[in-house]
Amino acid sequence: MGILSILGQKGGNGKTTIALGLAVEATLSGISVAVVDLDPQSTATNWSDRRNNEHPTVVSCQVSRLHQALKTATRNGANLVIIDTPGKSTDASIAAAKAANVVLIPIQPQLYDIETLRNIKDILTLAGNPLSVVVVNRAPIQGRRHIETIDAVKDMGLTTCPVIMFGRAAHGDAGNIGKTAAEIAPKGKAAREMRGLYKYVSIALEKGGN
C-alpha cells in the first residue's frame, strides 16, 4: 500500500483540493483509495458528504488515531492512502510525514508560502527525511511567478514538481458539489493538470516504496 501525505504549514495553499483531486484520479485508474482527513475543519470529509459516490473513501481522523486508520485501510484492501493534514499543526504534519512513502508540499507562488518551507524542512528532518516534493499550486495564469517560485524552492535545497497547478475555477466549482475538475470538465485544463500531477506522484510513490 502506498501512502502519500499532503503537508503545509499555512492555510489556503490548496492541500485538500490536491488530495481529493489525486484520490479521484487514482479511483478513475481503478485503484482503491482511502483519504484520511486529519484536519479538524473536516474539509475533505464535508466534500465526501456532498458526494453521491462511495469512492474514494474519506475518513475523518484524529492524529492519535492515524496508525489505526492506516491499519484499517490496509485491512480493507486500499492500494493508496492519501493523508490530508491541517494547515498549522506540527504534530499532525510530523505524524503524516513519518507514515508516508512520499510527501507532497503544495505552496502558492508567494513569499508567505515560500517562508513556511523552512519549518517544513524541520518537520521532514524530524520525520526521517521521507521522499518529498514541492508543487506550485494556484499559480496565476499570467506571468512568471511560478517560475520564480520554483527557483526559490530549489535554492532552499528542496525538490520541485515539474507540473504546475494553476488557479482554475473548475476546482472550486467541482468541490461545491462533491466532485473534482476531472468529473465535471474532464477535458478542461484543470483536469489535465491534475492528471499530470497524478502521473508524477505515481512514479514518485514507486520510488518511495522501494
Architecture overview:
The chain contains 10 helices and 6 strands. It has a 6-stranded parallel β-sheet with strand order 3-2-4-1-5-6, sandwiched between helices. Strand 2, helix 2 and strand 3 form a beta-alpha-beta unit. Helix 1 crosses helix 10. The longest helix is centred in the last third of the chain and has 20 residues. It is globular. The mean pLDDT is 95.
Report the structural category. alpha/beta
Oligomeric organization of the protein chains: single chain
The first-level CATH class is given as Alpha Beta
Helix amount: 40-55%
Strand content: 5-15%
Short account of what is shown:
This protein is an alpha/beta fold and 210 residues long.
Question: What brief labels describe this structure?
Answer:
210 residues; 10 helices; Rossmann fold; alpha/beta; 47% helix
SSE layout and pairing:
Layout: E1 2-6, H1 15-28, E2 33-37, H2 43-50, E3 57-60, H3 66-75, E4 80-84, H4 90-99, E5 102-107, H5 111-115, H6 117-126, E6 131-136, H7 145-155, H8 169-175, H9 181-184, H10 189-208
Parallel strand pairs: 1-4, 1-5, 2-3, 2-4, 5-6
Helix pairs in contact: 1-10
